[in-house]
Design a protein that fits this description.
84 residues, mainly alpha, 1 helix, membrane, transmembrane helix, ABC-type uncharacterized transport system involved in gliding motility auxiliary subunit, transmembrane
Amino acid sequence: MSRITLWATIILGLAMAQRVNAKAWDEANRSVQEAATLYGERLREQDRQQERMMMLAARQVRLGWLALFVAVGSLLLALVALFV
């Protein structure tokens, strides 16, 4: 095998290795981007769930205050009825 053929084979092998390496990096980048997208979607869904929970908690607090006012009002009406 002549030196030119040897060098051509080495250069061709390096070019093929570079191409395979580039494809591997592209695939790795796509995988990382997909994972980041899925993670972002999961975080957004968790934020939405947390917001829903906060809204439900606020509604329960409002209903609790309403129940307290109704109970106090009923107690006052009972006291008025007792003394009248």
